[in-house]
């Protein structure tokens, strides 16, 4: 664990391979639809099984099988309404149908898979998490049957808000957390297609070592710069680039965005042992201040040149 | 070696790992259409090798100065594969037997919460029964608890002698399992908040006690039929309610009495300890339901039902006491003096101690 953990809904997990990686936690807005889907599935399953049992009893012999069918209905209702989540989560690796539909999964707080006992505890304690109940009869004053008592889930919500891993009471007691199941994800690599970038990168002094934090900053910048307008890019990059321009002894009219990108190219993409890139039409230009001085001596400045003045 | 070349090198293996994850997430196993070396044990070996190398890449991400987006990608890839590699254990029936006949009685015997719940339940039950029976000292007690309508209904249902048929028994057994075990489970769950659990426990104790007391009055209508009905399943059911309350209290007390653990750790620990108690309680509820469904409403002679009640009480006692008695209670615990040799003792002959031979353990 790093000493400073980001203020985020990710949680680091250390695997048996001794690797720490991040899980994204699932909040109430992903978990409630999953719960509602599960509720629907549960009732659908009960209705289907009861109707099926009834028809089988009717087909064979209702006289002798009738009582068994009724007992079977009671038992079906009992088992499905109390143990649906427990069985599903144990057999399907921490997912019920609703969780599968919403792309979330239950795991142990240590990142290990859930086991039967934990699933039992967390699914039973959902009743407490759905407290307190709100009955519409209180407000409308009518004879609404108690079936329409609506759980508000405030206990669970408060517990989720006040714990680091967004756990409700059932999760706390069972030692589990709900994470977002990672789907397939594209590997992003920023490609450099600007010919000026390798050219400018070749002028960065070889003795300049890029620190880790600098490398990270460069990578973030290269990933995000597509979303910014050129003016905004320059504004963002300037803070970092102005001291560097002095250090590299570059001309001060260099585009900060371009230099930032060139640094990125040099850090991540360029072959360190490679010779100078093919400069093409840019051959002969230099961003260096000293060459500008020479040019000024020769009184041959040119404002139209893309990077900087002529070298020789 | 720069990052682009490194990524290019590793990208194939990552893509392969993703292919595995896709197949495992969709069907739980590798599909038959994939290459032969992905099938069976070879496939498992390949998958874990790929997973380990991806882990190694993530571990070295900082040293390689990988871009943050790539690191995020690796985190997600490893999270996906981790979920597929380490899967939930299926239910193991052998473990259940162990839990029911080893963990549960030991836990019940040792747990003070079960004792408290039993005292609360049976104490209030006995008290309410006494108060309900004694109409002179406590007039109106039963009416206040059960209500006049409830008393009438109760008298009505026990007015006729018990008689039932299979058509009646089977559905009722199913209904009792659903209804009573449901109450027990709810009692357990409310234990997390302690007070609702105590409320459910006390309410049931007082209500049942008042009903028993009322029916025990000499002038009660259907009193004989009532006791004819309740005798057989009484021991199972009352014990089951008390156990469910005890399991619930264990859950809630863990939050307050932490025994040196962190609060959340303690809650988790006590929840895991409460599960066997609740399992035992549910088993008792089921047995009570079968008795209540089949034996209790039958016109069998009272002596049979009483014998069953005695037998079931004996079984429960055997379960709690014989199976539950601490296993290490008879082994001598070392006392404070054991560690130090007494100045007045004698030393073992040196050739016998610390010989280091293979027979030393004997």
TrEMBL record, chain A:
Q: Which Pfam families match?
A: RDD (PF06271)
The lineage's top-level taxon is Bacteria
Record keywords, A-Z: Membrane, Transmembrane, Transmembrane helix
The regions listed as transmembrane in this protein's record are 39-62, 68-87, 146-163
One GO CC term on file: membrane
Q: Does the keyword Transmembrane helix apply?
A: yes
**Compartment annotation:** Membrane
Question: Which InterPro entries does UniProt cross-reference here?
Answer: RDD
UniProt protein name: RDD family protein
Q: Which residues form the signal peptide?
A: none
Membrane topology term = Multi-pass membrane protein
The RDD domain covers: 25-175
Q: Which organism is it from?
A: Rubripirellula obstinata
Automatic annotation (TrEMBL), chain B:
Task: Give the signal peptide as a residue range, or say none if absent.
Answer: none
Where does the chain cross the membrane? 114-132, 187-216, 236-259, 271-290, 302-325
Q: Which UniProt keywords apply?
A: Membrane, Transmembrane, Transmembrane helix
Provide an example Pfam family for this protein: SpoIIM
Q: Specify the superkingdom.
A: Bacteria
Q: Which InterPro entries match?
A: SpoIIM-like (IPR002798)
Name this protein carries in UniProt: Stage II sporulation protein M
Source organism per UniProt: Rubripirellula obstinata
